[in-house]
Write a structure and sequence with these properties.
The chain is mainly alpha-helical and about 200 residues long. It is built from eight helices and five strands; from the N terminus they run αααααααβββββα. It has a three-stranded antiparallel sheet, with helices on one face. A two-stranded antiparallel sheet has the order 3-4. Helix 2 crosses helix 4 and helix 5 packs antiparallel against helix 6. The longest helix has 20 residues. The model has no long low-confidence stretch (mean pLDDT about 90).
Length: about 200
């Protein structure tokens, strides 16, 4: 069902990074446990077993929730497609797992120290990451034309060297200070091609 129905259909609806997340969850956690079982014979107990094993192995809550949600999506699609009459993952709950460590924002001193220890390409990338709130994949996908009068247009993300959509598949414009705008424009003059931060192959 995964190979013939779910994945071919789902990959057309989601971004590239989500496709890779689905593939990873399937290959690492779901297929080893229930991949060899006919879909109509998969039970709630089997699905609980997947999540319990992940919890025992010390997997984080975000990972366990992602797998639970994916299993639920698989069987929801199976119900809609007439492969099964009910979703065995409907009432599955996430077991007690370790909570993720809270992300601590950088202090102002840490930001200044980061900037002072960087130079060239790395310096400007850090400036955009911190001051424009961009993700690293979004920074790597920036083009010179994305520097607009209204700010920095963020509409793509780089994944494995290829252009993809942003995480939420939306375009946003980040405000630019005059200093950061000048820094980007000056950097753009030193780079060949349209990308602001091309790799050694020029893309």
């Amino acid at each position: 069902f995964w190979e013939k129905v779910f994945y071919p259909t789902t990959k057309l609806r989601v971004a590239q990074n989500t496709q890779e997340s689905y593939t990873s969850s399937w290959n690492n956690y779901i297929r080893p446990a229930i991949g060899g079982t006919e879909i109509q014979h998969v039970t709630k107990v089997a699905i609980d077993g997947i999540l319990n094993c992940m919890a025992i192995a010390g997997k984080g809550k975000q990972t366990v929730v992602r797998v639970r949600n994916m299993v639920h999506k698989i069987f929801s699609e199976a119900v809609e497609s007439g492969y099964v009459v009910r979703n065995p993952a409907h009432s599955v709950t996430v077991p007690r797992v370790k909570e993720p460590n809270a992300t601590r924002p950088m202090t102002e001193d840490e930001v200044y120290r980061l900037f002072s220890l960087s130079e060239g390409r790395a310096y400007l990338m850090w400036r955009i990451l911190v001051l424009a709130g961009a993700r690293i994949g979004e920074v790597l996908a920036l083009q010179k034309s994305d520097v607009t009068p209204g700010g920095l247009r963020i509409d793509e993300s780089a994944l494995n060297g290829k252009a993809s959509t942003t995480k939420n598949r939306k375009t946003r414009t980040a405000p630019l200070s005059e200093r950061l705008r000048v820094e980007i424009e000056e950097w753009a003059k030193t780079v060949d091609g349209e990308l602001l931060f091309p790799n050694t192959a020029g893309h």
